[in-house]
Specification:
By secondary structure, the chain is α/β, with parallel strands linked by helices. Helices cover about 30% and strands about 25% of the residues.
């Protein structure tokens, strides 16, 4: 019998290949393995609206086998419960059942259950009722972590929220009258990677007016995030970069309550939000306690001595998860519980 952890790890590797293209769908990887431990085919979800991982895996298996049925029983490994409903594609659970005899599928090993209420155990139920053995919870923690944004949307009914800012060694994020560059070229690339990983990006009025940012993903692969602007008094002119045609921009002015905004973004099926706002916006969000991660980039060689203070409550950010040096700048990542 194949090593469950070993092959689920491969599913996770495959799933990440779709990282910048499948949102708001989850990243999923799948593979077929015979009893001798030979991988017969692999697949992953490549693009939102396209075939799911299971479809690509089984289609590849049919192509490779060229009409031959495997002699020994076959196990399908998949990092997320196969879907059971009609969305942009037909149910994967139905496809697995229909291919059971042709591909000699006796067992399906699942990493984590799907918390989408349209699935939520129904895919597994279908497979078991069809007589297919189902094993669940293999590398479940790792599978859930991979799709933390997807699970947050469906379990908490809000986007996964990441706060990010750069500050000087003495704790300032900028000057009130002009833009200050604290990041270096390499750390800027890391920020754009974060933009590609998240569906939306938010700033407030002051940042939009002072920095005039486009908030696009120009230094990494993947799609541009949806731009979110909090502009209570409509002060940002439509000629500013944040309204460029490169990406959609959503403006909140009449109602800028944090809970309302998160609920509205969830209604729009936006599963993640990167906040690159100024001190006022960041402090307001931190005060609510509704956020998931904090990323703080520190330039240890820059001292501003005055200006706009960065948020100052490390104990309120959560547990320090990672500390990494990026071309002399230091990036601290906190996970909020």
């Amino acid at each position: 019998m194949p090593d469950y952890d070993k092959y689920m790890s491969r599913c996770l590797q495959l799933a990440k290949l779709g990282e910048y293209y499948v949102a708001p769908n989850p990243m999923v990887g799948a593979l077929l393995v015979n009893e001798e431990g030979v991988i017969l085919s692999e697949g992953w979800h490549r693009q939102f609206g396209g075939p799911h991982a299971e479809v690509n895996c089984l289609t590849e298996a049919v192509r490779r086998l060229n009409g031959q049925t495997p002699c020994s029983p076959v196990t399908l490994f998949v990092s997320l419960e196969p879907c059971s409903h009609y969305g942009k594609t037909p149910p994967c659970a139905d496809l697995i059942i229909s291919k059971r005899k042709e591909l000699n599928i006796h067992r399906v090993v699942v990493g984590s259950l799907d918390s989408n209420p349209k699935v939520s155990g129904e895919g597994i139920r279908k497979l078991r009722e069809a007589g297919i053995e189902v094993v669940t919870g293999v590398l479940e923690k790792e599978c859930k972590q991979l799709n933390k944004r997807f699970f947050c949307l469906h379990e908490n009914h809000r986007p996964y929220i990441i706060l990010k800012w750069a500050q000087s060694a003495d704790g300032y994020i900028g000057l009130p009258d002009r833009r200050v560059v604290i990041s270096n070229p390499l750390s800027k690339q890391v920020v754009h990677k974060m933009r590609a990983e998240n569906m939306s990006i938010m700033v407030g009025t002051n940042t939009a007016l002072t920095d005039n940012p486009k908030l696009l993903n120009t230094h990494w692969v993947g799609r541009n995030p949806v731009r979110i602007l909090l502009d209570r008094h409509g002060r940002v002119p439509r000629s500013y970069n944040i309204f460029s045609p490169d990406s959609e921009t959503i403006v909140y002015s009449d109602n800028t309550q944090w809970e309302y905004i998160l609920s509205d973004l969830a209604r729009r099926n936006i599963h993640s939000l990167l906040v690159e706002g100024g001190a006022t916006l960041l402090n307001n969000i931190l005060a609510t306690g509704i956020f998931d991660e904090v990323h703080i980039e520190v330039n240890p060689k820059m001292y501003l001595c005055q200006g706009i203070k960065a948020p100052e409550s490390p104990e309120g950010f959560g547990a320090l998860f990672e500390e990494q040096t990026i071309d002399n700048n230091i990036l601290y990542t906190y996970v909020h519980y």
